[in-house]
Design brief:
With 409 residues, the chain is mainly alpha-helical. Helix content is 55%, strand content 8%. The protein has 13 helices and 14 strands.
Length: 409
């Protein structure tokens, strides 16, 4: 029985939900076949991520965000999706985890590299925490899959280091302190820490109390990005919650705000906080989608300016794969939580756009980069930022939610 704004044509909704679930299940199988077949480096370990449309390796550089994300994906599939609970999936996850621990982290500083040569030699390091975050996510999920305490121990030690850099002293990250630099609250930082906390609590539910104060701090930081009487979510604000001047202060990334919305919704359920859930769904998911949807050509803009000016980012009007993945997770989750049919209709709208423009039924996986009109701009399947993560995460989460909704109804 529906709680709010019941869908007027229940049979039509159920038939579409069956269609969505079946398409997503087939898409997940096809996507994972692509990565399992094409990305493994059997000589040096780890994964190739620079793959052409049909899976050929066009660059052997190993990008460490994507190494960690692929280990996480394999481990989560093994743990949570019955048909992927296979020895070859676990072996691939474990082999990737060992590559991470051997090559990605500098044992003296605990900084993780951004990229490596094929055989594991460092190429580049960033002055951020993101390589470290995906290292942690990978090993904590691998700990769930294997039961090996060394992965859990490593993940928890890395969490201590990340929290120290973010909340105590970031000088070890190597960023120069220049006279004109403003202190900026970038939404990506507290949001990714919320993802880490949720990941660690998934690994060990008892850790919720340990990280509760950090979670509340991060939530307050993320909520401060809702600005202009709730009409926009800005990427950058001051640490006292004020809008910053200039292009950076007006910057909106609708896909990122939508992702923050479903992360906040997940944590609101853990905390049994209905107020937080409402803000997450109404402001971060729904308002950001309404701001970000291209009403002329369809799809979600990559960047926007809160004043309606042209953003400084040259790629601002492109349509990227991952904001659509995040919107699909967010709207199906919003519908599941509220039974508000408007959210189901928006899920359907994004789904129909994505499966018309991004999905490759021939070779598997999704194209990542479209122009504003929805034409394929780059036809490779993986690169330095696109790997085995966003598509697979969306598919496993939404297939599960669709199955649960069909069961409930």
């Amino acid at each position: 029985m529906y709680i709010v704004n019941a869908f007027p044509h229940k049979l039509n909704m159920e038939s579409r939900l069956v269609e969505f679930r079946d398409k997503m299940a087939a898409d997940l199988d096809r996507t994972m076949e692509f990565w399992l077949k094409n990305s493994h480096d059997d000589k040096y370990g780890g994964f190739f991520t620079c793959l052409t449309r049909d899976g050929k390796v066009y660059d052997e550089t190993k990008y460490c965000w994507l190494q960690g994300r692929q280990v996480w994906t394999y481990s989560r599939l093994y743990n949570d999706v019955k048909r992927f609970h296979k020895p070859e999936i676990l072996d691939a996850a474990r082999n990737g985890g060992e590559f991470l621990m051997k090559y990605v982290k500098n044992p003296e500083t605990w900084k993780c590299y951004f990229s490596l040569t094929r055989d594991g030699k460092p190429l580049k390091i960033q002055r951020t925490i993101f390589s470290e975050c995906f290292y942690l996510m990978a090993l904590s999920e691998l700990a769930r899959a294997t039961g090996d305490p060394k992965y859990k121990t490593e993940a928890l030690k890395m969490m201590d280091k990340i929290l120290y850099w973010v909340r105590v002293d970031d000088t070890e990250l190597g960023r120069p302190k220049l006279a004109g630099m403003e202190s900026v609250n970038k939404m990506a930082i507290p949001m990714v820490i919320l993802c880490l906390i949720d990941q660690l609590v998934t690994m060990e539910p008892g850790l919720l109390d340990k990280y509760r104060s950090d979670m509340k701090w991060c939530i307050s930081q993320v909520l401060s990005h809702v600005q202009r009487d709730g009409k926009v979510v800005l990427e950058n604000v001051s640490f006292d919650g004020k809008e910053l001047p200039g292009c950076a202060g007006r910057l909106m990334n609708p896909g990122h705000a939508i992702e923050a919305g479903w992360v906040l919704t997940t944590l609101a359920n853990r905390l049994e906080d209905n107020t937080l859930k409402s803000i997450a769904i109404e402001k971060f998911i729904d308002t950001s989608f309404e701001n970000g949807w291209d009403k002329k050509y369809g799809g979600i803009f990559y960047f926007l300016d809160a004043d309606g000016l042209s953003p400084a980012q040259l790629e601002w009007n492109m349509k990227l794969w991952w904001p659509h993945n995040e919107a699909l997770i967010a709207f199906l989750m919003a519908y599941k939580e509220t039974k508000n049919s408007e959210y189901f209709q928006k899920f359907s709208k994004v789904f129909d756009y994505a499966y018309k423009h991004f999905v490759d039924d021939v070779h598997g996986e999704w194209f990542g980069y479209l122009d504003r009109r929805g034409e394929i701009n780059m036809d490779f399947k993986g690169g330095d930022y696109k790997g085995c993560f966003h598509v697979a995460r969306y598919l496993m989460m939404c297939e599960k939610m669709a199955t649960e909704l069909l069961g409930n109804e």
